Amino acid sequence: MSARSGPRRLYSLVVAIGTLAVFAVMMFPLYWIVVTSLKKEIEIFKVPPTLVPRELNTDSYSAQVQHGDFNMFRSFRNSFVISASAMLISLVLAIPAAYGVGRFFFKGKGLFILSFLVTQMLPVSVLLTPMFITFRDLHILNNPLSAILADATIGIPFSVLILMSYFAAIPGELTDASRIDGCNQFRAFRSVFLPIASPGVVVCLVFSFLYGWGDLAYGMTFLLDQTLRPITAGMFNFMGQYGTKWSYLTAFAVVTIVPVLLIFVFMQRYIISGLTAGAVKG
Amino acid sequence: MNTMKPLRRSFRYGNVGYLFVLPAALYMIGLVGYPIVSNFLLSFQDVTTTTLSHAAKPFVGLRNYADLFADGVLRTSVGNTFVFTLGCLLLQFGIGFALALFLNRESALARTVRGVLMVPWMIPMTVTALMFKFIFSSNVGVINQALQGVGIISHPIDWLLQPGTAMLSLILANTWIGIPFNMILLSTGLTTIPREVKEAAAIDGATAPQAFFRITVPMLRPVIESVLMLGFIYTFKVFDLVFVMTNGGPVNSTHLLSTYSYKLSFTLFKYSQGAATANILFVILFVVSLLYLGLVYRNREGGR
Known about the structure:
The structure holds 2 protein chains of 2 kinds. By secondary structure, chain A is an all-alpha fold. Chain A folds into 2 domains: about 5-55, no CATH class; about 70-280, MetI-like fold. Chain A has helices at about 5-35, 40-45, 60-65, 70-105, 110-120, 125-135, 145-170, 170-180, 185-195, 200-215, 215-220, 230-240, 245-280. The longest helix of chain A is centred in the C-terminal third of the chain and has 33 residues, at about 245-280. Chain B has 14 helices and no strands. Chain B is globular. The interface between A and B is large, with 95 and 93 residues.
């Protein structure tokens, strides 16, 4: 390291400062809502704005715990139930489907894959009106099931396309070996293939959950009862009601992104591989 | 048990694939295939709140489409959707590419920052919309506060209350989401360019811009094409962000096809017109999607 000359060290210093500047600019909006949620209402209006709260104020959070029609913790739970259920449906259906597509040849396979690729590019708008009418006829409007069923339509094609390549990459010798050991197709699937594809399964769990968590359109359209709505729809209503109460609104937003940040911290590796492999967001 | 035998035999070899695929396929046919067809039919009928419960729905042919094209808001929405998409693509691709090049080094700092920049892409769009609505708001927005603080403007700008600046704000907010997507895909592409190629170019005396335009860009071309196509597809159908930030306002000037379709169906209860608007969005996207898939297949064949 001592061989490093002066200009070179200066160069890496400039690069490091530049990198931090990029980080600061990109992360500023998130920082700003966290800080705002901890400020008092008067301080939010200060010009020039304060970068750190002068006086720490956690009322925006505690007020929500105690009362309020727009109980953010209830809608948090609704969102959790909807996203987790949609995630389960996606995985239960997508894992076998991906195995079927990845390991077998059958007529219409190409068409099957193509239709899943196209489905991923489908706008929510196309499905919203007909789904609304169908769910109305089935009497499941205002039932979390409607949002769950709709959200899973985003997770399934994504998961099938991701897992398909995992299953396809597993060498054929393993199938033969498992057959010699007396496994039938289903046993081989369960005890040989599924464990090998488990990193892919984690990617699908993460993405299916995030799709459900981020959904606004389905949750807001099919669930009309305030107490059933997911947190995104709750936040939207709250904005309509308390349009300028920014300390409350930003607190709501911060609570909404907590699970996302946790997923990011613990699952970062899987997220990057999911993004590059499928490169899709609903 | 005997009756099971033929069934079992037919699933024994290759056909067992159908058995695995069937549940997912049925689910998707029921919850995506059927709605697409029904949305298509709906757009040729006249379904509003009054006719929603009737068994027989009046068939009106192309009248919904004719009415929509005569309607100024739809034409604005089509234009807006393209302006929004192209504006976002330009910014997010440009900035994303610049960041991919800049952060394309193996220091711990660069790696960490690359990772954390994924967060904007992961958080719910509703949160992003709220955040930028706050940042661009007239009286408490940090942008106005900062511009006033340094004396560039004397009066706050009503960013979201004027058509031009409202669209600009929407584009900037969506760009924030799109940058990580572009950056990660382009970074991954950059790592596939062998170091030897660049070293050889340097030895031959290529300058940095020459190396960039003659080596990096051509070698990244398949990645660049798919990033732009996917970016187009995802941006063209954005709904949540615009719905929450401006809801098409002021006075319908920032409606996209997605938000206008929603308004027709769920605010004005003109379900058929909403469906027709969604179909216009769908047809444009479908054409682009097919172009994209064609591109993917072409690149794949060219590469092997």
